Amino acid sequence: MLRLYSAGYNIPHPRKAHRGGEDSYVVSSPTNSTIAVADGVGGWESKGVNPRAFADEMLTKTYQYMKKGEIDPKKAIKASFPQLSQVGSATFCMGKLDSDGIFRVANIGDSGFMVIRDGQILIESAEHQHQFNYPYQLGIGEDGRPHGEDRPEDAQVYRMELQKGDIIVMGSDGLFDNLWPKQILSYFDAYDLNPRINSEVLAKLAYEESQKKDNFVPFFQRAKDARQPFASYRGGKEDDITVLVSVVD
């Protein structure tokens, strides 16, 4: 029986650290083998709403279905979404390893994951966006109704068979906007596998990149590809950074 042995680490955006930032995450015990991250949308702050509250509630209620035996994260978010009451919106990525070795992921927005096997990327999630810097997201408005046009049915779904020794790296956009996949691979090539230490070190590496002013990060490349004004995106992207690392064993 294969299970996930996981750990997570979060570094809040410096300006938002006083209230814990806007990212939320779940790391279950190996028995349940579920990992998830939700990134609260910061625009709600201007309306007096704590963006973290919605992300927390969405993960908490979705994970309740996973604990009850649901193996499909998309079904869990579809079931929990009508029960959400906090105002706000968030991106969402949740993965679950079933006892049969099948890893299922539902992804909405620009959080994401990658699976590493034998020093190579086996699979990497694609950005889920309407357009540059406008990710899909789930939300509840001040009227208590779903906010925006995106719904759980829009989630990208991934399904793959994992094997012992595979490594999963999941994170908010603060990770994948600041570290290139080759940097993450290079880290695991050089250091021992320990999810608690790995998640912390990768988060700190991403944070270091986010604070630089003249580096070339993935977010800058995506801005360039989208023909955005380069000067506005030069240097690292300051953001909340959440990193989850799991090993299959």
Give a structural overview.
This protein has 249 residues and is an alpha+beta fold. It has one domain (4-248): PPM-type phosphatase domain (Phosphatase 2c, domain 1), CATH 3.60.40.10. The chain is 26% helix and 30% strand. It is built from six helices and 13 strands. It has helices at residues 51-67, 73-80, 173-176, 181-190, 195-211, 218-225; strands spanning 4-11, 23-27, 34-40, 88-97, 102-108, 112-117, 120-124, 129-131, 134-135, 138-140, 156-161, 167-171, 241-248. The strands form three sheets. Strands 2, 3, 4, 5, 10 and 11 form a six-stranded antiparallel beta sheet that branches. A five-stranded antiparallel beta sheet has the order 1-13-12-6-7. A hairpin with a 6-residue loop joins strand 2 and strand 3 (34-40). Helix 1 (51-67) crosses helix 2 (73-80). The longest helix has 17 residues, at 51-67. The model has no long low-confidence stretch (mean pLDDT 94).
List keywords for this structure.
alpha+beta; Phosphatase 2c, domain 1; six-stranded antiparallel β-sheet; five-stranded antiparallel β-sheet; 13 strands
Total helical elements: 6
CATH T-level fold name: Phosphatase 2c, domain 1
Biggest beta sheet summary: 6 strands, antiparallel
End-to-end Cα distance: 8 Å
CATH homologous superfamily placement: PPM-type phosphatase domain
Order of helices and strands: EEEHHEEEEEEEEEHHHHE
* Low-confidence residue ranges: none
CATH architecture: 4-Layer Sandwich
Secondary structure class reads alpha+beta
Beta-strand portion reads 25-35%
Helix content estimate: 25-40%
Coarse shape: globular
